[in-house]
Write a structure and sequence with these properties.
The structure is a single chain. The protein is built from 48 helices and 21 strands. The protein is of the alpha/beta class. The strands form four sheets. It has a ten-stranded mixed beta sheet with strand order 8-3-4-9-7-6-5-10-11-12, with helices on both faces. Strands 15, 16, 17, 18, 19, 20 and 21 form a seven-stranded mixed beta sheet that branches. Strands 1-2 form a two-stranded antiparallel sheet. α7 runs parallel beside α10, α24 runs antiparallel to α25 and α33 packs antiparallel against α37. The protein is elongated and about 145 Å long.
């Protein structure tokens, strides 16, 4: 029962997902109500509930006025119980500001906003963004920070920033987070979003503003307890004062409230928490192993921006700094390439003074000291720092710089190897940035295997990223290895909502219901079935047509494959029978023959995905059949679809692939006509054993069939074994005088082939005579395909003549005319009471025609099935005329044989004769002259039927009015119809009746009371026996009727005919070529004898096929199966022709007008950029000249002062480093001598204490540092104080590596050195000593592997903490072997974040190597195995995921054992 419920739920989920999205639309009022409920339940604001007068009158200490407080907050004046406290007197209440915000002005924009508390959970905010505001989860989070006040940005840098930010957001699906106000960097982001919205109609850019509620100007308009939808917000920049206006170009606003008014920076902490929360979410989907990446983009900025950059990089967030944007951004950009030692305090002083200007005077020495230390720490993390510089050689945009910075951080965040490359590729696919993948990932450094990229290929296909699919195929992905049956099933599970998915869901549902009914009869039920390839195959076969075979045949019953969505039923029986092994062998053969390109192309076509289909089509082996099958499938789905736009897109794509098929066939036909014709009629194994010609006809691809190459094939089939060069008159003469075929009067195709062979042999002999080489003759003898054909014999020539469809057609024309002649003679001359011999012959003749129509109905060489064949038969107009003529003849004959209905039978036969004569037009459809004209006549007949409807309105209107005026109460129906319909109709052709005026009235020609059936009734008469009707009225009515009916409507009919002729004339030739196929095929399958002699052929066919049950002979003219070797050779040649076609198409596109315009526009943009650069270079050159002149003047002044005895008290300032030194050189210089770094981190671990900033140059104790004021700190849980008390003089113990910025013991257990023992337990994995293994411990607190280590009293014993981590037994075993171990490192100083000026960590690296012959090894192995992953043996390798210090320790151990690391 549980399994059945799961099945129902899974199928229901598939059907729900397949429905169009517009079925799930929700009304705006319901959305507003749901949003209001969510806000009231989850979002709060903060308000002050104790008014206490501050420095200003009527202003509370919270910053709000007295009137802004609630009543309970206003206390009596003598209230003195407690003073105002931010933490005690600010509370949370439900938010009262949320909804939609509308900005006025030109181009009104609308966003969403909500007022949130500083304590709001970031998870709730993420739910608000994704669930309530319906934002798609981001693939990238861009946090833009910098100057909060307006600053100048050079036009070129501004344009590059705008373009780059929008491009990276648009291509990657990123969110932008800023401060949200209309100033500084937030204003620049808003302008970028505005420029994008004005120039593009694509998806919305998400720009989230996180601003402080208490600093927003005009925020009162946003407040309403039930929300505002929308709130009209006015941007009053001039009157904002110390407040800030919201930026009108942001799309969403989170307004952070801490209960105070006018305090900036309240939102920083919540914004940081929100960014961390988003960065912990999985990228793309739950199965992805990568979190959403975050990047910080910096423009301008002050000290607060420096803190933001510093904290972001400590958290592992990469930062992109735009050089030239001003202030702190330029300071960091100037020193980014320098070694840390050259980033001195004096250097930072100079840079601050240069880039901050007057603001520099407000900075204290302590602030510069702290900033110097932070800048040094920032440039120590080059993998997280990217500087965007505008230079002549650098053509990289801001978008590329942002993504390169993320990838650079990704490289360093993972261990070396394929994991790092995989993470980068996953990010690039999520961002859909092929350019980044090409330049940064698929390089010579990365060695990819096809199997390594299968996950990426699947992700690119499901994510609809065709450019990545193409890139992965170029970089080694093998479709044959990737696209196995299981992967193909998974792809169909991931189909987007489309027509095919809905059809497939219905099929699965119906299949499930049938299976459910079947399971009720069984005790054991199978696994829950979702989509199987059988379902896909059946649905595709329905789209292609029943004449095709299944593309994915049902596997044997014991090897059924299904796309199960339920994962609990995955067990596989291990028993293999002989049948199963044969089935597996057959399955392997099918796998070898399958075409993965076809499978991928079909998957893309079924979802109407043009880009993916185009890539997959290029990978197809049978490309022409694939294109025609796609055309057929798309047109079928377009007919069945209900969405007009989707159907139009499918028809457009179908026409596109028809053009592809035409292009490939044209290339094939131009190269080799014979091979091209084979491609048309060969049965394609990949597409249901059908032919290209059949697919084109079923898809109604008239343009393809109308190609000259296809028509040449049809003409050859039409002529049979006769040459197409024979004139018609020769064929007609030989039909009458057959002996002429033996005189060469009529040329056969075999004769032409033999003649060409003879001419080719003569050419070869001539060449051999001249060159003296027999190589060509020998090669032709060895060629098996060059078997010499024999000439046709006398009997074969006669049979070939009369079996030619052309000759059959001519004989049928002759005998059809004879049939019509005999029919006419019988009707006019020889129609007796008793049928004469001629009439009996006519009946026999008609019987033969009936038999032929029955044979055509049941003749089904393509395997359509009777229903499809009958439907096709009745869709043809000429067949309908055949059926009508036969039915009329049978009814007329039945009437004719009776005495009472004899004359009625003759009338029916006369009408039948008319139908037979009309049927004669079908014979002339083969004519190139008359065939197109018949098509035009058919089109005009349809127009005439619609015209007759308009004409009948005027005829009936005039006729009834005339009849009512002239005749009074005539009850004879015949004369009523004559007067109301017939006479008005004749008036159109000029036959005006006599009774509409008095002039020709004759009372003798009518009857007064209507008693004479042969005369019309007289009109109403007056006393003078003259008509009493108003003559003037009838004449006016006649004139108006003639004006509209005879002039207007008839000329309208002529105009319609003219329009139809002009419209159809261009396509008649194409339509005629398409329709002549059916006539050719009809006469190709007809017996040679014409009616009535064809009756003998019908008897022969009946006896042979029905009585003797012999299969009919299959003709190879329309369908043939090629041997495997010839099939492979033909497909290879077709692939070559396809490449030629694609190349020519690319050349045409490159020469198209649109491409030229785009290239010209790009060149103009490039020239404009170059001109801007030249202008900037000229300005810089002038500035450099002025600087040189100033420097010379200053040098002259200095020399003059020195000559007069004036000396400087301070050393000369440092010269700023130029760009001559490369970053690598500077980094190498830094590595030569480096002080401890972790021991100088600002934030001391597990505490709220902050170290005193110690720049690099002030670390050594020998260097004077007068302003050094370190914090003294000792943790309470530091352990036993083994070396004195806290009151002990700390100067006794001084850190040997220099200052750390903190005094005291810190978090360590004692002053001075704190010993830490690091154990590396090793063994050889095998006897060859090729692989060295070491023991690692799983650290639950950090979720990583680590080496066994811990604090110890002495290096001669293991740390006591290892008893808990390793287990008591293994601890005792290893502790007994400590004396046998090797101290690789002894009491070495460790750069630990817990170190202080008076306490530090020293480590001893102990290596204990276990001999494989030792018995304790087995005990340790068993204990490791039973630890369930807590202890693991790992190979000693540089790819081991350990901390940098432990990896370095492992390298020392590897060197000790002479093994690779």
């Amino acid at each position: 029962m549980r399994e059945t419920r799961l099945d129902v739920r899974v199928v229901h989920t598939l059907m729900t997902a397949s429905r169009p999205s517009h079925h799930l639309s929700v009304s705006p009022s319901f959305q507003h109500h749901a949003f209001t409920t969510f806000v009231k339940d989850n979002i709060h604001k903060r308000e002050c509930f104790l008014y206490e007068k501050g420095d200003r009158e009527d202003i509370c200490r919270c910053g709000y006025s007295k009137t802004d407080h609630v009543d309970e907050a206003i206390k009596p004046e003598d209230f003195t119980d407690e003073s105002w406290d931010r933490h005690k007197h600010i509370r949370e209440v439900p938010s009262d500001a949320f909804g939609d915000i509308s900005f006025g002005g030109l181009g009104q924009t609308t966003g969403k906003y909500v007022r949130v508390s500083t304590d709001t959970s970031p998870e709730i905010l993420y739910r608000l963004l994704t669930e309530q505001w319906k934002l798609s989860p981001p693939n990238l989070l861009i946090s833009v920070t910098g100057g909060a006040k307006n600053f100048y940005l050079k036009s070129r840098l501004k344009n590059m920033f705008h373009r780059g930010l929008i491009k990276v957001t648009q291509t990657t699906g990123a969110w932008i987070i800023t401060g949200g106000t209309h100033a500084g960097v937030m204003k620049h982001v808003g302008q970028a979003v505005r420029d994008y919205s004005l120039s593009s109609m694509k998806g919305q850019i998400v720009a989230i503003g996180v601003a402080t509620w208490g600093t927003i100007h005009n925020r009162e308009t946003l407040v309403h307890p039930e929300g505002r939808f929308p709130a009209q917000y006015v941007m009053d920049v001039k009157g904002q004062g110390r407040f800030s206006c919201l930026d009108n170009n942001h799309t969403h606003f989170l307004l952070v409230d801490d209960g105070t008014n006018g305090n900036y920076g309240v939102e920083i902490e919540l914004r940081s928490q929100l960014e961390k929360c988003i960065s912990r979410k999985r990228l793309g989907n739950i199965e992805s192993g990568v979190n959403i990446p975050v990047v910080c983009v910096v423009l301008d900025g002050g000290p607060g921006t420096l803190n933001t950059i510093y904290n972001a990089m400590l958290n592992g967030t990469p930062c992109v700094v735009l050089e030239g944007s001003g202030r702190i951004a330029d300071v960091i950009a100037q020193v980014a390439t320098l070694p840390v030692k050259r980033v001195t305090i004096a250097h930072i002083h100079e840079l601050m003074q240069k880039f901050f200007g007057p603001e520099y005077d407000k900075f204290s020495d302590r602030m510069i000291l702290e900033w110097t230390k932070k800048i040094q720490d920032i440039i120590r993390m080059p993998h997280l720092l990217t500087i965007f510089r505008i230079s002549e050689d650098n053509h990289v945009g801001v978008d590329v710089a942002i993504l390169q910075g993320l990838l650079k951080a990704s490289k360093m965040s993972e261990s070396l190897g394929m994991e790092s490359w995989k993470r980068q590729l996953e990010l690039a696919i999520a961002w859909n940035r092929v350019d980044i993948a090409e330049t940064e990932i698929f390089t010579e450094e990365s060695q990819w295997k096809s199997s390594d990229l299968h996950w990426a290929m699947f992700s690119a296909l499901v994510g609809n990223k065709p450019q990545f699919v193409s890139l992965l195929l170029e970089n080694g992905v093998s479709l044959r290895d990737f696209l196995d049956e299981e992967t193909l099933c998974d792809l169909y599970k991931q189909l987007p909502s489309c027509i095919f998915l809905r059809k497939l869901a219905k099929r699965v549902h119906s299949s499930y219901r049938r299976k459910k009914t079947f399971r009720r009869r069984r005790v054991h039920s199978g696994p829950g079935q979702m989509i199987s390839m059988t379902h896909v195959s059946d649905e595709v076969r329905k789209l292609l047509g029943s004449f095709t075979k299944a593309l994915y045949p049902d596997p044997p019953s014991n090897t059924t494959y299904h796309c199960n969505m339920l994962m609990e039923d995955t067990s596989v029986s291990l028993s293999k029978t002989e049948t199963g092994s044969k089935a597996s062998l057959k399955e392997e053969e099918v796998k070898d023959e399958r075409d993965p390109g076809r499978d991928l192309f079909l998957w893309a076509i079924l979802q109407n995905n043009k880009e993916l289909a185009e890539i997959a089509w290029e990978q197809c082996r049978d490309c022409m059949s694939a294109a025609l099958a796609a055309s057929k499938i798309l047109k079928t789905m377009a007919k069945e679809g209900s969405d007009g736009d989707e159907a139009a897109a499918m028809k457009e794509l179908a026409d596109h692939y028809e053009k592809h098929a035409m292009g490939v066939f044209s290339e094939c036909h131009n190269c080799d006509q014979e091979r091209a014709q084979k491609l048309l009629v060969r049965a394609s194994p990949s597409w249901g054993k059908t032919t290209c010609l059949r697919l084109a006809l079923e898809a109604d691809d008239k343009s393809f069939v109308a190609q000259s190459g296809v028509q040449v094939l049809l003409t050859q089939i039409w002529c049979g074994e006769l040459s197409v060069e024979n004139p018609v008159w020769r064929v007609l003469i030989c039909m009458v005088f057959s002996p002429l075929i033996y005189t060469g009067f009529l040329v056969y195709r075999r004769d032409e082939i033999l003649q060409r062979e003879a001419e080719k042999n003569e050419e070869i002999k001539t060449v051999e005579t001249v060159t003296g080489s027999t190589l060509r003759t020998n090669s032709r003898r060895l060629d098996p395909s060059s078997e010499r054909l024999k000439p046709l014999g006398p009997w074969s020539r006669l049979v070939c003549l009369h079996s030619s469809p052309q000759v059959k057609f001519y004989w049928n024309i002759v005998f059809y005319f004879a049939f019509l002649f005999l029919f006419a003679v019988v009707l006019m001359i020889d129609f007796q009471d008793t049928p004469s011999a001629g009439e009996v012959l006519l009946y026999i003749w008609l019987m033969s025609l009936v038999c032929e129509e029955v044979r055509q109905l049941f003749y089904d060489p393509d395997g359509f099935g009777f229903r499809k064949k009958a439907r096709m038969y009745l869709n043809e107009l000429w067949n309908i005329l055949d059926v009508l003529s036969i039915l009329l003849f049978i009814i007329g004959l039945a009437f004719r044989l009776t005495t009472e209905l004899f004359y009625a039978g003759k009338v029916l036969l006369c009408i039948d004769f008319v139908v037979f004569c009309l049927r004669l037009m079908a014979i002339f459809t083969i004519s190139k002259t008359l065939g197109p004209k018949i098509i035009i006549v058919r089109k005009m007949m349809m127009d005439m039927f619609f015209f007759m409807f308009l004409l009948s309105i005027w005829v009936v209107a005039y006729g009834v009015a005339k009849q009512g005026i002239l005749i009074h109460n005539d009850n004879r129906l015949g004369w009523i119809l004559r007067g109301a319909v017939y006479e008005p109709y004749l008036i159109i052709f000029g036959d005006v009746p006599d009774n509409i005026d008095y002039a020709e009235f004759d009372i003798e020609k009518c009857t007064m009371n209507g008693s004479d059936p042969l005369k019309p009734k007289c009109p109403v008469l007056n006393e003078n026996q003259m008509p009493a009707f108003p003559e003037w009225l009838t004449i006016i009515m006649l004139c108006i009727y003639l004006l509209f009916a005879n002039i207007l409507l008839l000329n309208l009919l002529i105009a319609i005919f003219n329009f139809t002729f002009q419209e159809v004339q261009d396509n008649t030739d194409r339509i005629w070529k398409f329709q002549r196929y059916e006539l050719i095929k009809e006469y190709h399958s007809r017996p040679a004898a014409p009616p009535p002699f064809i009756i003998f052929s019908h008897l022969y066919i009946f006896v042979k096929n029905v009585v003797l049950c012999r299969p009919p002979l299959r003709s190879t003219d329309f369908k043939c199966e090629l041997p495997p070797s010839e099939e492979e050779e033909l497909l290879s040649w077709e692939a070559l022709m396809k490449d030629r076609y694609l190349l020519s198409t690319q050349e045409e596109q490159s020469q198209s007008m649109e491409r030229r315009i785009m290239d010209t526009a790009q060149k103009v943009t490039t020239m404009n950029d170059l001109m801007e650069r030249e202008e900037e270079e000229q300005r810089l050159a002038r500035l450099e000249d002025q600087v040189v002149q100033s420097a010379r003047a200053l040098q002259w002044i200095m020399e003059s002062l020195k000559c007069r005895g004036f000396a400087a008290n301070e050393p000369p300032p440092l010269i700023l480093a130029g760009s001559d030194e490369s970053p690598d050189t500077l980094r190498n210089a830094e590595k030569e001598d480096r002080f401890h770094i972790k021991a100088r981190q600002f934030h001391y671990p597990n505490s709220k204490e902050t170290r005193f900033p110690v720049p690099e140059e002030k670390v050594p104790w020998e260097v004077s540092f007068s302003s050094y004021r370190p914090v003294k700190y000792a943790s309470e849980d530091g352990g036993d104080q083994m070396d004195g008390s806290e009151s002990e003089d700390p100067d006794i113990h001084r850190n040997p590596e220099g200052r750390t910025g903190m005094m005291g013991r810190g978090a360590l257990s004692r002053f001075g050195p704190n010993l830490n023992v690091e154990l590396v337990l090793t063994r050889w994995c095998d006897g060859k000593r090729s692989v060295l293994q070491h023991l690692v411990v799983w650290d639950e607190s950090h979720g990583t592997l680590t080496l066994p280590s811990g604090p110890a009293e002495s290096a001669d014993e293991l740390p006591g903490s290892l008893k808990k981590t390793m287990g008591k037994k293994i601890y005792e075993i290893i502790n007994a072997k400590v004396s046998e171990g090797t101290k690789v490192l002894d009491s070495v100083y460790v750069d630990d974040c817990r170190n202080t000026d008076n306490a530090w960590v020293e480590t001893t690296l102990l290596n204990i190597h276990l001999d494989r012959m030792d018995l304790t090894v087995m005990d340790i192995d068993s204990l490791v195995t039973s630890s369930h992953g807590a202890l693991q043996w790992r190979e000693v390798s540089g790819k081991t995921r350990l901390s940098p210090n432990q990896r370095e320790s492992l390298r020392y151990v590897a060197e000790l054992h002479n093994t690779k690391f």
